[in-house]
Amino acid sequence: MKFLHTRLKVRDLDRSVAFYVQNFGATVRARQTSGRGTQLAHLTLPGTSAELELAFLPWEPDFQLGEDIVHIAFEIDDMAKTLAALKANGANVTDEGPAMSWVSDPDGYEIELLTADR
């Protein structure tokens, strides 16, 4: 068995792709539209073969995201440097700590940042 991907529903596919490419070094492996019209972007993230799949559902362009339900996590080398870069890119840093911090993506999904020495 091999874990392949996680899907996040987004409100603006291009905006979300840009966020993950610019802030987390993601690369776009593929973009497609499913048979039912879902617009998809498959992102490869550094350090893993698993992908992040972003999905825009044209028939549901807005949605409510449940609080504290879904988050993804990244291990980073330098918290201060990473937070400074995120802030410079306009990212919403919601909690800062020396070994663990949180940022939210454009749709409100939480992203946990952890240092290797946590």
Sum up the structure in keywords.
four-stranded mixed β-sheet, alpha/beta, Signal recognition particle alu RNA binding heterodimer, srp9/1, single chain, globular, 19% helix, 2,3-Dihydroxybiphenyl 1,2-Dioxygenase, domain 1, 118 residues, 38% strand, 2 helices, 8 strands
Assigned CATH superfamily of the largest domain: 2,3-Dihydroxybiphenyl 1,2-Dioxygenase, domain 1
Instruction: Give the strand tally.
Output: 8
In the sheet with the most strands, the strands line up as 1-4-3-2
Sketch the major β-sheet: 4 strands, mixed
The helix/strand order is EHEEEEHEEE
SS-based structural class?
Answer: alpha/beta
According to CATH, the fold-level topology of the largest domain is 2,3-Dihydroxybiphenyl 1,2-Dioxygenase, domain 1
Helix content: 10-25%
Query: Regarding quaternary structure, how should these chains be classified?
Result: single chain
Rg over C-alpha atoms, rounded to the nearest angstrom? 15 Å
